[in-house]
Amino acid sequence: MRAISVCRLAIKTSLLLVALASCAVLAYGQRPPGPRADEETFRFRFVGPRAGNRVASIAGVPGDPSTYYAGAASGGVWKTTDGGNRWEPIFDKEPAAAIGAIAVAPSDPSVIWVGTGEAWAIRDSDVMGNGVYVSTDSGKSWTWAGLEDTGRIGRIVVHPRNPDVAFVCALGRATGPQQERGVYRTTDRGQHWERVLFADANTGCSGLAMDPHNPRILLAGMWQVEMHTYGEMSGGPGSAAYTSKDGGTKWAKLEGHGLPKPPLGKIDVAIAPTNSDRYFALIQTKDQGALWRSDNAGDAWQAVNYQRQLIGRAGYYIRIAVSTGNDNEVYVANSSFLESLDGGETFKEVPWGGDNHDIWIDPQNPDRFVITDDGGLNITTVHGRGFHRIQLPIGQMYHVAVDNQVPYYVYTNMQDGPNMRGPSIAPPLEYGRVVDTGWERRMGGCESGFTLPDPTDPNVVWASCYGNEVTRWEAKIKRARSVSPWVHSLDSPPSDLKYRCHWTPPLAIDPFDHSTVYYGCQVIFKTSNAGQSWSVISPDLSTQDPKYLGSSGGIVGDNLGQFYGEVVFAIAPSEVEQGLIWAGTNDGLIWYTKDGGRNWTNVTKNIKDLPPWGTVTRIEPSHFDPGAAYLSIDYHLMDNRDPYIFKTTDFGKTWTKISEGLPKHQLSYVRTIAEDPNQKGLLFAGTGNGLFYSLDDGAHWTVFAVGLPHAPVTWDVVQKQFHDLVVSTYGRGIYILDDITPLEQMAKKTTDEPVHLFAPRDTFRLFPNGGAVITYSLKAAAKAPPKIEILDASGAIIRKLDAPGRAGMNRVEWNFLYEPPKLVALRTTPPENPHIWEERRFRSSDARQVLHWGIREAEVGPMALPGKYTVRLTVDGQSLTEPLAIVKDPNVHASDDGLAAAFKLQLRIRDDITKA
């Protein structure tokens, strides 16, 4: 046993905060003076998809069918208080988004325990956490409670009568040996922790149960597991079941007496709530069985079931629960959901979900339970005879791309879902609805990989997928055609494959020739005839070390490509120099070719002190200089979570590390790096829990702190025409930061004036969901409310806007409408309509507007025509102006003369209403 004081952890955390503060000083204090862009002004907006991904953990309140807490795999904690009709995220202010365990204290439902880090071992993109959090007000606020290095927490059990006593089942990071894993106990609500069960540095906790009638009795499953870029190894001598009969102080290893012999894999355990003598152990074995039961409190065991279906893909599943009303009714969550009514001796598959992960059963009502799965959760109050299906906006998106339409569309791949595209601006008639509007799904491809529109024709979409799958989709026929360069057999060790291709295979379209497409395995393929044929244009670009090409899975093989090592992971053709292509592998090599693939140069050794086996997550060739490129490398599967971003300006002869200004913590590894195509040196970096920008080519970094949840940022891209930053997250879908032209202008020229008006972008005349964004900065708060006026080409004021005057960045949006008419207002009661005087909206006024509900459009002014306008900002007597161009929507088929005639009519109607 080892005692851990949270005071000591707090000191460590304080040091971390000091380090972060130092980074903040580096990022903020040393950069040129000027306004910061991480304030309330720059807020990301969620664009979809609204139907999301995996819910890893679930908890309800005993006896309360209205309240549930759902833990998303990498999207935070969500809560409902109306039985699942409405949900809200309640954990977004915390730095960790992966939720492995949730527990409601049985004796005080206002005390909620959360363990971060998803305790699965299934793919390279799954996310770790930073310890335990506790809420004492039903999730309104949270307190970090330590165990920051435990990585992944799969279970929390709380004492049935004391909410301050809890046990944590910590798997550990699972990316290398460590001490911070096993079972931990606190008796003071997380102020101090004691590690009470520890097997070895390679083994963590995968299952934990407490007897609700006698909380001194605990049962634990320990799992030896290790994940690296090149493999997942489940099982070994460390895996075993343990029991404690004194409240967790002493533990006895359970072996023999009918239990299977080592090596074992993942283990989950359960104690029947209605029978304290009945224990269950769901154990991953190679061929010895699946489910063991004890009917005498663990003294003797028997294998009661050998169905492989119960333990399939153990790294992703293995969860068991026993009904709170019947000790013979047993549930197993796996790729299917299985139910036994005879104590586990036989199971039948029931249609209660697919790819299932967690189960919560009301201790007071066994008819009410919740099952979570890859697409959400199911709530039943009638013992499975009917379910309330819940899907949350927690999409795990691999990448994002944009096209050149007006408005543009975003393209993405969602874990456990199809690939898809959706509008950057929701269609007007369906704006505000809770469903995804305008989204199109299943355009070839699959859940993983890339989805890329043809840059000259968005009706043609390319996609990559696991299994060496490449597709080409055409909108005209709504069909995708497989154009894969090679047949790939799943469930094969990579050493057996001619071409080994990752779960997330890279795909790129040549900027100089849209008919040329590149695809990566350990070599790079090229097609120039719509996929009719492919040629190999590179040698094997990996390290080609055979010892890293073995079968993955451990005691039971699992080879679906997630842990294929020594593959190309990034392909990046230059848009500045034709024939220049960069490539990076997931075993840490960086290459380029200047002649379209005939000759390749390895520049890896030119990066000083680069650790081995980094995954090159992205290479971003400069949009301005052919010899310049940016590189992000992720080492988190090699037990290194530091950020790595490099830059070269001489085709890789020399490299500069530009990530020193980023914070270092459990989730600081870098997933993506992008350069703004409109402004040289304006960079955006996505990490395991945030998004950062640099105005000075990586010398200093600033975090975007508002509007973007702390989910992993997997990809980012700037839509060049709209100047929008589009971001994919692995846990919360797609977000857009509209109009980053102020950042582009700040990167070009530092401003530190008392008042600064940024030049607005050219804005398409979209309505009703469009508008011209006006951004300005104030060094100090304005003494009087600022004024913004819109002037037409003649200099006439056509619209006045209210403007905030706070210090820092400020934004106002003009919706293209002229000043509205002055509506008629009555000062006396209308004799035929006296009730209008009593309407609540008029009670504080001495006049009542007359409005006919059928002509509400009379309240607004006419819409400005395409053309040139001027924005004038006045702050405390100082006036600044900038030109503004409104561009005609290319989807509008009316002629310019027709638009002008309609405008004149609208203007006349407005003036007539005012005169009336």
Automatic annotation (TrEMBL):
CDD domains, A to Z: Sialidase_non-viral (cd15482)
Keyword field: Repeat, Signal
InterPro entries for the chain: Sialidase_sf, Sortilin_N, VPS10-sortilin, WD40/YVTN_repeat-like_dom_sf
Signal peptide positions on this chain: 1-27
SUPFAM superfamilies documented for this protein: Sialidases
Origin superkingdom: Bacteria
Pfam families the UniProt entry points to: Sortilin-Vps10
Sortilin N-terminal domain segment(s): 132-255
The protein's name in its UniProt record: Sialidase
Organism (species): Candidatus Acidiferrum panamense
